[in-house]
Amino acid sequence: VNLVQNTISQIQDKFGQMSDSIMTRIDDMGRRIDDLERNIAHIISQTNAELP
Predict the structure, then answer these.
(1) Helix, strand, coil percent content, the chain, rounded in steps of 5
(2) What is the pTM assigned to this prediction?
(3) What does the domain layout of the chain look like in residue ranges?
């Protein structure tokens, strides 16, 4: 019984670690997308300003 409980506990711990890692990566990706959108908007505004 203890072996099963220990195994389940280890699986839960690993799942929690993976979940935290995934959430961190999603947050990082969101920030990168926001930065990319800002850069694209800046490039578009510069291009429009340079057009006659």
Answers:
(1) 95, 0, 5
(2) 0.70
(3) 16-52
